[in-house]
Amino acid sequence: MAFRLPRNQQFNYKPRFWEQEKEELEQRVKQMQSDGEATPEEIKERISMRFKTRRGYSPEVGYRDAQIKKSNMTLVASIAVLSFVSYLILEGSFADMLRYFF
């Protein structure tokens, strides 16, 4: 008496190529064509697409880098000023300096 073993299950999976830029372009063209009769879902999608382009997904990469650099410089300047004021307070000459100004 021979036992029959089940065969491995096979799948016919064929991966598809996805072009994100092409899909986004098609969505924008579709939105421009149906501007007058937009459903609430289309309006939500349009608003979310606009937020995505403003949050750092923008093709303008240099803008984000410039904002980060500006923020870092502000932080460094603030730390430098606070360090200087702290040094004056600890040194004791801050009280003398306040007498001259007030």
First-residue to last-residue Cα separation: 108 Å
The helical percent reads: 55-70%
Number of domains: 2
Helices, by number, come to 4
Please compute the radius of gyration using only Cα atoms: 31 Å
Shape: elongated
Let me know the number of strands: 0
- Could you report the average pLDDT, rounded to the nearest whole number? 78
The structural class is mainly alpha
Task: List the quaternary state of the chains.
Answer: single chain
Strand content: under 5%
Low-pLDDT segments, ≥5 res = none
Q: Secondary-structure element order, as H and E?
A: HHHH
Account of the 3D structure:
With about 100 residues, the protein is mainly α. It folds into 2 domains: about 20-35 and about 40-60, no CATH class; about 60-100. It is about 70% helix and about 0% strand. The protein contains 4 helices and no strands. It has helices at about 20-35, 40-55, 60-90, 95-100. The protein is elongated and about 105 Å long. The mean pLDDT is about 80.
Summarize the structure in short.
The chain is 68% helix and 0% strand. The chain has 102 residues and is an all-alpha fold.
